[in-house]
Structures are given as C-alpha cells and as structure tokens.
Amino acid sequence: MRHLGIALMVALCVPAAGCVQTRQYADVQFTPPQGDYRLLVMRPDVTVNSVTTGGMNEPRADWTEQARTNIIAALAAQQLQRGGKVKILARRNELPGVSEEAVADLERLHSAVGNSIALHKYLGAYLPTKSRRGLDYTLGEEAVALGRKTGYDYALFMFAEDSIVSGGRVALQVLGVAGCFVGFCAPNIGGGGQFAYASLVDLKTGEVVWFNVVQAGSQIAGIKMGDIRTPQGSAQLVERLLGRMKPGYEVRRAMEKR
Amino acid sequence: MCWRCHELDRRSLLVGGGIATAALSTGVAQARIRPADMKPLIGPGFRPTDTDEIGLWQQMQRVEEEVAGSNLLIKDPALIRYLQDLIGTVGGPAAKDMRIYLAHIPDFNAVMFPSGFAVIFSGLLLRMRNEAQLAGVIAHESGHFLRRHMIRSWRDLKRKSDIFAIGSMALGVAGGATGVYTGDIAQLAQLGTILSLFRYSREMEAEADAMGARLLADNGYPAIEMANTWEQLIGEEDASARHRRKRRDRGGSLFATHPAPGARMADLKVSAAEVTVPGRAYDSRRARYLQAISPIRKMLLDDQVKLNDPGASQYLIETLARDGWNGLLRFYEAEVWRLRNRHGDDLRAAQGYAVAVAYPDAPPEAWRWHGLSLIKAGRQAEGRAALTRYLALQPNAADAPFIRQMVS
Q: Do B266 and B311 have their domain in common?
C-alpha cells in the first residue's frame, strides 16, 4: 500500500502554490452505493509525518494514532449519514469465519491491482485498448469469496498520509521569501501536504468499481490545506475523498437521456 | 542494515558533478574499529522513548506484520527454532528480544530492522560451512540493533540534511546580497553531504563487524570464521565473474554503503585475533549446523544451480565439499555442468551422476539422470536399471509415468 502511495504522490505533485486536487475513476456501470448497503472498510493505512528542516519525512507515532482514530470516526459518521451499515477493521483477525491470511492476501492483491491502476490511470501509461472503458479492474474470486462469507456488499481500501512542516522548515521558508528582496528567491521550498486514496470494491463481482486520489498541499512550507490530526481535518479529508462519488460513464449517459 | 547491500546507482548521484574535487577532500579508507570498544548501547527489553524512534518503531510494526505473514518465508518449525536459539545466544543483552525470519531467497544476505527483527535469506544457509559462520552473520546483524545503528543513521541523515538546507539557503541569501553566484559551491556541498552519509554507513558496518566478532568469541565460537565467510564470498564472486569473463566489483567506492569485502576480511582477521583468548576452547559446531539445515539443504542447492551462475555454483559446491564430498554435493556438481551445457559438459555431467550414485546418500534424481545419461550413451540395460532404482526411490515423482514407459 505504501509503495502505491508514494508512486501516486510523485505523479500528482504539481508545482502549484497551494491546491486541493482530486481525480476519480469509476466502472462504466457504477452507481454510488445508497440506502441499505453493507460496507466493509479494510484497515485504513494512516501515517502522519513531521517534515524536518532539511525536508526529511519523519513518522510520528502519536500524531499517527490520533489521525487514525479521527479518520475512522469521520468515516463511520459519513457512511451512517448515507444509510449504509459499516464495519471498519482495525485488525486482520476481526472477521468471523475469515482467516487472517485471507485478509492479508486480499490486501496484498489490492495493493498490486492498485499499482496497476496508479500506473495506467494516473502515471500516464494509458492503455489505448482501455480508453472510454472507465475503471476496468477486478480482484476476482477472492473478493467475491470474502463477500459471500461475510455478507458485505462493498469493501473499501484506504490510505492517507499527512506531513506536518516543522518549525525549522517554516523558518527556512521565511528566510527564502525574505531572500527575494536581495535577489535570491526561494518562495516555495515545499515539504508538507496531504495525500490520500480510496478504492471501492464490489464484493458481488470482485470488481474495483471506484477509485479516487486526493492531494492537498502547498509548495510554501507552513501553509496547510488541512490537518488530519484534528477531527475537523479528518472529516474534511474523508469528505474530499468519498463525499462526491460520481456514477460511471454509461450510468451518467443514461441519466442524461432521461 | 544488511549484511551486504547493493550499491546505489552511482549515475543518479553524479548529477551534480564535481566528483573529482570532492573525492580529493574525502578519503575512502578508514581505521578499523576495535571489538573492545564495542559496548552494547541497549539493555534487555529495550523500548524507544524518543519521539523519532517511537515513530520508526511504529512503522516497523506494520513491516514486521507483512514480513511475518509473507509467503516467501520458510516455516519449518525446527529450523526456525534453531535460528531463534542462535540469535538468542549471540544477541548480547537483547538476545531474548530479537525475532528472526527465514526468507526463501537464494542470495547471500541478511537484514536487521530497526525494531529488532532480522530476516535471513535462505542463500545464506547454503553458503555457511558451520554454525560459527552463521552465528557470525547473525551476531553482525545483532550488532546493528545493539549499537542502535538505525536511529543513529537516521539522526545523522536528519542533522546533515538540516545543515545542508540551512547552509544553502544562507549561502544563497548572502550571495544574493553581495551579488556573487554561489550555485557551484552549493552543489559541491550537496555532494559532500551525500558522501559523508555513505561514510557514516560504512562506519556502522565496521562497528557491527567488530561487535559481531566480540559476541561470537564470547559465546565460544571461533571469531575467525567471520573472516572466512568473507573469504568465501570473495572467492565466489571472483569465480562467478571469471566465468562470465568479467572482473569482480571490488567495492571501496565513495558511494559504497558497506566497506569493501577485502578490507572487511582483513579487519575481521585482526579483530578475531584480538577477541580470541589463548587457552580457551572454541567450537564451530559444524555437526549441529548440518543437522539443523539437513531438511532444506537439497532445496538450497537446487535453488542455487538454477540461478544460471555456473561459476559461483561450482565454487560454492567445491567450498562446501572441503568438509567432505557426499552424494548430494556430487549430484549438484553434475547438475551445474549439465545446465551449463558447454562443449563436453554432457559427458562431464554423465560422469558426475555416475560418481554421485556411488554414495549411499545420493538423491533419487541422481539415479534418474544417471539412467538417462546411460541410455543416451547407448547403454540401454544399465540405464533402465538406474531408472528402475529411481522409480523405487521416488514412486510418486511427477515424471514417473514417462520413466515407467521408458523402462518397460
């Protein structure tokens, strides 16, 4: 999962002063789940780093724990609003009748499929035979088997990373901006920012029906576009990530015709 | 923090240029670290208390979960218990805290992770001639943990990147104010920073070697076996390169994360002499080692000969055979020739199989290839007899129906 995250992060890094970007893909037949659906959220992979003066990302255990708790709470609240029944896994062994290995296998399989999605949908290696086909990926039988055993309709995989710029780096940024007055300008040394993705799998067919990536940050160290350490920040990220699920291409076209 | 990591791509680091200038100011050679100076920096039951280390350990928890659940692991319980006992012996004060995993990767390596779990590659078990050699590698890896190398190198990296960032910003602002272009100096400083990071990494490897030698001798193993391991590795790489008409990469570059193997071997010899107490009995516990790896030794040899590196494979088999030939080694020696398939190798392999089956412990496959070679040479009756023997030893072999047809 982490590798997938890094690859996507590199792809979406646009040297803008500060922005929030999302880019979602859906199966052509996808209709966002509404009403009485059962959603299984696989262990959300959450990390919060502190960005050192030199620009290194240092993982912070306390912030990470805080953010994970907040993200899970925000997810539960959001799905409840939509009418779905949600179970959020914190460990691999929480599903009755499903072994830890089976969950681990599915996570790894999703990571591999997700890498393909990243490569062919986000990193520019577009496949000519797949144009206008929407999101055309599947986790296959394993996902269907999980759905059959547990009775869930969808599985959601999620990754979120937030990097908080340290005081030293902000000071360095101030110096860089101050330098502009003497002719040495470094107004955007960057470093912080958020990155997240979510992937929705239909457990009846095994297909990855919806995929979204959010990037929020600025190239000016110290200016934040959200902070998942706070409940509000987490709710904001979850909303950005899952709030506006667009239906698939064919569903949209059918809706337009009507 | 691995036993021998692969170097970074040099080209990627050369982008800034100025390599020659920087090389003049940074030497590659460094003094040997004395085992006597290597005191463990942590005690039993160590838990991180600093923020950065807690963060690192938290990340490692997830890594360990992935490693522990990986299907690349060899899970033979007796063998794993043996390895766990070994790290429990040579692990110093943290002996009881470390975990060990055995990965099915036919390569010579071992890695220690920051939170105290080690991954041993199966290729390592093939190459070790006795328990002392294996314990040496494990002691080296334990040395990384005991000397807190991961967090120390992370802090070193943090400190140097901070200094570089502040320095280059200050330099730029100062240059801007005075109207001097400082870009070249900044690039040189960047290279200097990178070089000093690699130097620090090599120093830690040298520390782990010294610490390892000490742990080994303390536990009654001959410490010289660590130097022997390097001698074998250098020999293997030479043989592999010679076969491909190339030269071995001698290491020792400015960008090496580990000291050059030759230098490590030389230092380890001196260190071994230092930690050896005259009059004390040291035992390499070879029999115990062979006993422990016996269930997987055939698989290890099989993995190796299929790597398509006949130079290295032949050297390895000959090195293992210095402690005595047996049917298994003879069979795989012949396999190296057969798979190499140079002019005359088929005859050489046929002779090899014939020699192998003379040993009581020859694997069933030796009889199979012996039989097929005989038939190829026109000795039908003898060939069939050998194949019949193969079927008797392995009646459920995947190719049994075909062989049965050949025999009937």
A: no
Looking at chain A, which residue has its C-alpha nearest residue B154? A58
- Chain B: nearest CA to A121, how far in angstroms? 27
Model-level pTM? 0.82
CB A224 within 8 A of CB A218: yes
Average pLDDT over residues B252-262: 73
CA-to-CA separations, B235 to B67, B256, B261, B265, B304, in angstroms, rounded? 31, 20, 11, 12, 16
Quickly tell me which residue has 């967090």 as its tokens.
B151
Question: Which of A54, A59, A104 lies closest to B56 in CB terms?
Answer: A59
Burial category of A15 from C-beta neighbours within 10 Å (exposed 0-12, middle 13-18, buried 19 and up): exposed
Residue partners of B319: CB distance under 8 A and separation at least 6: B127, B129, B232, B235, B236
Helices (H), B14-148: 19-25, 51-68, 77-90, 122-127, 131-146
Residue with tokens 């030269």: B247
Question: What was the pLDDT predicted at A166?
Answer: 83
Chain B interface, mutation test: which of A6, A50, A51, A52, most B Cβ atoms within 10 Å?
A: A52
With beta carbons under 8 A apart, name residues in chain B contacting A55.
161, 165
CB neighbour class for B79 (10 Å; exposed up to 12, middle 13-18, buried from 19)? middle
For residues B130 and B122, the answer to whether their CB atoms sit within 8 Å is: no
Contact B161 A178 (CB under 8 A): no
Q: Where are the beta strands (DSSP E) in chain A?
A: 18-26, 38-41, 45-51, 57-59, 85-88, 137-138, 154-165, 193-202, 207-218
pLDDT in tens, B327-350: 999 999 999 999 999 999 999 999
Domain membership of residue B250 (yes or no) is no
Instruction: Please check whether residues B401 and B324 belong to one and the same domain.
Output: yes
Hey, are the CB atoms on A60 and B55 less than 8 Å from each other? yes
For A84-94, the pLDDT digits (tens) are: 888 999 888 88
Kindly identify which residue of chain A lies nearest to residue B59, measuring between CA atoms. Answer: A59
| Contact (CB<8Å) A59/B55 | yes
> How far apart are the CA of B102 and the nearest CA of chain A, in angstroms?
18
Indicate if B268 and B364 belong to the same structural domain.
no
Q: How far apart are CA A116 and CA A16, in angstroms?
A: 27
Task: Count how many domains chain B has.
Answer: 2
Q: Kindly determine whether residue A52 and residue B158, on different chains, have CB atoms separated by under 8 Å.
A: yes
Taking all residues of chain B, what is their mean pLDDT, rounded to a whole number?
Answer: 87
Q: Are residues A172 and B55, on separate chains, in Cβ contact within 8 Å?
A: no
In this predicted structure, the answer to whether residue B11 has a pLDDT above a threshold of 50 is: no
- In angstroms, what CA-CA distances link B15 with B99, B191, B401? 40, 10, 60
Give the CATH number of the domain where residue B360 resides: 1.25.40.10
Residue B267 shares a structural domain with residue B376: no
Same-domain status, B67 and B110: yes
Are B173 and B38 found together in one domain?
yes
Q: Which residue of A has its CA nearest to B183?
A: A184
Query: Do B76 and B43 share a domain, yes or no?
Result: yes
Please answer yes or no on whether B158 and A54 come within 8 Å at the CB atom: yes
Contact A58/B163, CB-based, under 8 Å?
no
Q: How many separate helices (H) and strands (E) can be counted in chain B?
A: 17, 3
Q: DSSP secondary structure string, B100-136? A: EEEE---SS-EEE-TTSEEEEEHHHHHH--SHHHHHH
Q: Do B180 and B324 fall within a single domain?
A: no
Which residues neighbour A98 within 8 Å (Cβ) at sequence distance 6 or greater?
A146, A149, A150
What is the residue range of B394's domain? 295-407
Q: Judge: B69–A104 Cβ closer than 8 Å, yes or no.
A: yes
